[in-house]
Amino acid sequence: MNWKGNALYLRLALGAQLLFFAAWGGWLFASRNTDSPEFYLATEPVDPRDLFSGTYVALNYEISRPKLGRCPRRTRDLGSLFVKLEDKGGKALTPAGEVALYEATDCHSNPPQEPGWVKAEMIYRFGGPVATYGIERFYLNENDPRKDARSGTVLAKVKIDRNRSLVLLDLVEKN
Amino acid sequence: MASYYKKLKADLEASAGAGIITPEQAAAVYERALSLSPFASFKAAHWIGAAAGLFVALGVILIVASNWDRIDAATKMFAFLLLFAGVGEAAIRLDDKPTAAVPLEMIWFFMPILGIGLYAQIFNLSGDPVRPYLLWAALASPAALLSRRPFAAYLCSALLFFTLYYGTLSSNGVLALTAARAADPQPLWHWGLALAVLAGGAALFPGRKLSLPLGASVVWLFVMMLADTAVKVRSSALILLSGMSLAVLWLTYGSGRDDEKPGLPLKVWLGAVYFTTFFWHYRGDEFANRSAADSAAGGGLAWLLFAGALLSVVFRPQNLLPAGARDEMAGKVLLAASILCSFLLFDANEATAKGLAIAANLLLAAFGTVSILSGARDSSEKQINLGVAVLTILAVTRFVDIFGSMLRSGMAFIVTGLAFGALAYFVNKGRKALIESVKK
Q1: Domain span at residue B157?
Q2: Greatest mean pLDDT range, A53-67, B252-266, B424-438
Q3: Mean pLDDT (whole number) for B356-375
Q4: What is the spatial distance between Cα B57 and Cα B333, in angstroms, rounded to a whole number?
Q5: How many CB pairs (< 8 A) connect A and B?
Q6: Nearest to B126 among A78, A125, A134 (CB)
């Protein structure tokens, strides 16, 4: 049987592609649908552009270089770990009023099942190891003024999903 | 290329008309010629169709990328799935109408990355930059393999090789093979994934041509040995041994079939030997030994490549010179010598490095001379031109490189010119003798 150009096989390939995107979309929706509290993170944005996904603000965070508790200090400690995020009294003023800023207070590769622990990946960047949380891009319309946000002028509104990953909800300008 | 097939068809029809061959034979020869080139049967309309598909796909991607935030997430995702299904189904239904199917297949190929970009935008996804490309290739390859046209397979293969180079030369991500500064080596499974991507890129390359994917693989492996990876080599001798062995392996396995001429691999081998001639100026391992020593795996790989190349030279037909028993031994000797020359760089001093440079010059001179003689014998103008080009480039380089002064260079040019004249005389004499022997 000649499988080149076979309509049945091509439809199966198309079906598999569609199934993948439907399942992925469903999983993304489901994992974010939690009652976990929303909180804010201080950011250090820059402004690049990705032709496949559009304009986004690239975000670095103060929690990107966790130093307290058992957080790794050596350059060679790369890979997956969990970071504890807590309200340590830091505040910022937004149009909606004063909000608490969360900070990284501890790290562990196998943390206890308690709120506040989030997945991170330690990678190497110029200047040393950096923790990435999968919230390093905020996509917005190319005419949105927030794409010109400068370092320290915006806050990231986030929450923790069912898989202990941080979810980026909004980018809020500080007053 | 299309004009070649047009002319071939006309010649075959004329031959069949003149009774030299039967019409069936003419048709069979033409079909075979067409089957060797995946794009031979493509008309201008098909190429325009492919361009149309590419432009539409890129346009849709940019519109989506502009982040149409007036539409809610679920609607965007549903619209995307609907568009995806529509494009795929239309491409399948119109498969026998290439003018429509070609652009649709192009759009279909880009649909997965469109979806990945859209989802990243909706859910603010970020992370390893290599994963989207790997996912795109994994999703697009089944349809590319099943398509009766080669466009999607070419694009998929190119995508995988691009991802391989991009991902492995990075020090972060699932394909990263280059060590971050002061960090531990990359995990072994990254190599497994990289080799799987390499195999996928080579397997998806359409047609029976092996030269380009093999060349991309050979260059990638050499780059990995030069970069700060688990297989890094830092000594000049091992770098040269690996490079020359890879060039010989590419030449041996990347050409030699009926439809594949050793054009690119041959030029790369010539370039590698030409580069070796500059070891005349070698002053020690100063540029190569800056970042630590050879890794054990790198050293082992270099010796493995050397053994593989040498065994291939001995047991496989050579592709350096045109096929034929007369030049077989000459080709094998030149190839083996080009690899073995690298040994002069082990514990090298200026004298042995100069010996290596002289050997490389002699290799090129021998190749040029044998090419001219072989071309004259087989009436191959192309082979003669190649030999003359190699000798000329070699002569000009050495005159400028070594002799320096205008007086000495001028004298050297005259001597070379006279040598060329003598060679032309003997080649012509040999040709006439050959013609006379045929007449008798």
Answers
A1: 127-207
A2: A53-67
A3: 86
A4: 52
A5: 138
A6: A134
Higher pLDDT, B167 or A150: B167
Q: Do A25 and B117 touch (CB under 8 A)?
A: no
Reply yes or no on whether the pLDDT at B75 is more than 80: yes
Residues 6+ away with beta carbon under 8 Å from B4? none
pLDDT of residue B66: 64
A133 to chain B: closest CA residue:
B127
Say how many domains are in chain A: 2
- Chain B nearest CA to A120, separation (Å): 10
| Separation CA A106–CA A66 (nearest Å) | 8
Provide mean pLDDT across the span B358-363.
Answer: 88
Q: Are residues A61 and A27 in the same domain?
A: no
ipTM of predicted assembly, 2 dp:
0.78
Contact B92 A123 (CB under 8 A): no
Contacting residues of A for B178, CB less than 8 Å apart: none
Chain A residue with Cα closest to B90 = A11
Q: Which helix (H) or strand (E) holds B380?
A: none
B382-394 pLDDT, tens digit per residue, is 888 888 888 888 8
Q: Round to whole Å and give the CA distance between A89 and B381.
A: 84
Q: What pTM was computed for the model?
A: 0.76
Domain span at residue A5?
1-33
A93 with A7, same domain: the answer is no
Q: Are residues A4 and A49 in the same domain?
A: no
CB-CB under 8 Å, A137 with B125: yes
pLDDT band at B64 (very low <50, low <70, confident <90, very high): low
User: Could you tell me if A23 and A87 lie in one domain?
Assistant: no
pLDDT at B188: 78
Question: Does the distance separating the beta carbons of A52 and B113 come in below 8 Å?
Answer: yes
Tokens of B243: 């490079």
Query: A20: which chain B residues are within 8 Å (Cβ-Cβ)?
Result: 139
Residue B190 lies in a domain: yes
**Structure-block tokens of residue B302:** 């270099």
By C-alpha distance, which of A151, A143, A150, A146 is closest to A172?
A146
**CB-based contact B119 A10, cutoff 8 Å:** no
B residues 101..140 contacting A (CB < 8 A):
108, 111-127, 132, 139
Classify residue B159: in a domain, yes or no. yes
Select the residue from A10, A27, A161 to test the B interface by mutation, using most B Cβ atoms within 10 A: A10
Whether residue B256 is predicted with pLDDT greater than 80 in this model: the reply is: no
Assess if residue B162 is contained within a domain: yes
Q: What pLDDT sits at residue B196?
A: 94
Is residue A3 domain-shared with residue A43, that is, in the same domain? no
Q: Which of B377, B383, B392 is nearest to B321 (CA)?
A: B383
Q: Of the ranges A55-64, B110-119, B323-332, which one carries the lowest mean pLDDT score?
A: B323-332
Same structural domain, A13 and A87: no
Based on the domain organization, do A55 and A141 belong to the same domain?
yes
Co-location of A119 and A153 in the same domain: yes
User: H-type helices in B18-97, by residue range?
Assistant: 23-36, 44-65, 73-93
Residue B175 lies in a domain: yes
DSSP H helices, B296-405, are 296-315, 325-340, 350-378, 381-398
Report the number of distinct structural domains present in chain B. 1
A38 CA to chain B: closest CA distance, Å? 16
Question: Cβ distance A76 to B183 under 8 Å?
Answer: yes
Only one residue has tokens 């990945």, namely B116
Residues of chain A with pLDDT under 70: 1, 45-54, 74-77, 126-127, 150-151
Name every chain A residue with its beta carbon within 8 A of the beta carbon of B115: 21
With 80 as the cut, is the pLDDT of residue B223 above it?
yes
**Does residue B242 have a pLDDT over 90?**
yes
Question: What percent of chain B stands above pLDDT 90?
Answer: 18
